[in-house]
Amino acid sequence: MAEVVEVLVPGGKATAGPPLGPALGPLGINVKAVIDEINKKTGTFNGMQVPVKVEVDDKKQFTVTVGVPPTSALIKKEAGIEKGSKEPNAIVAGNLPFEAAVRIAKMKIEGMLSYELKTAVREVVGTCVSMGVNVDGKKPKDILKEIAEGKYDSAIK
């Protein structure tokens, strides 16, 4: 029966220390080979926490599956900020271009509750509300209203 280890690792910078090393060590596989594979696959997500699943079969062969980082991490990267606002309704932490919100929605749509890109974009903009990040220089709640009115339909394809 296959063993499965699921962890969050820093993109491109996984190490044999916790949480990976202690989880993989007892499985009897080459931990360095697994770490190298994870770092190769997560290099594009440098600086973000990335969900990784390592499956080890009975023959000690492993498969690494990389997920997409959380929406908030993608927003922080695209907006060029380190963290969200302490007071989301009062202090603006950064600005996210609308095109970036669409890109993030396309990356995350498989794991979202949305079936359509438009509602996935609304979810991303909704995350901006709680993080205190403006979208196209406007408050995210205003952008949500404009999406509902159809003003961004041409940008959402």
By secondary-structure content and strand pairing, the structural class works out as alpha+beta
Instruction: Tell me how many strands there are.
Output: 5
Percent helix? 25-40%
- What is the radius of gyration computed over CA atoms, rounded to a whole number of angstroms? 19 Å
CATH fold title of the largest domain: Arc Repressor Mutant, subunit A
Query: How would you characterize the largest beta sheet?
Result: 3 strands, antiparallel
Number of H- or I-type helical stretches: 6
Q: How much of the polypeptide forms β-strand, as a percent range? A: 15-25%
For the residues shown, what is the average pLDDT?
92
CATH class identity of the largest domain: Mainly Alpha
CATH architecture name of the largest domain: Orthogonal Bundle
How does this structure look, described?
By secondary structure, the protein is of the alpha+beta class. The chain has two domains: 3-66, Ribosomal protein L11/L12, N-terminal domain (Ribosomal protein L11, N-terminal domain, 2-Layer Sandwich); 71-149, Ribosomal protein L11/L12, C-terminal domain (Arc Repressor Mutant, subunit A, Orthogonal Bundle). It has six helices and five strands, in the order βααββαβααβα. A hairpin with a 5-residue loop joins strand 2 and strand 3 (62-66). The termini are far apart.
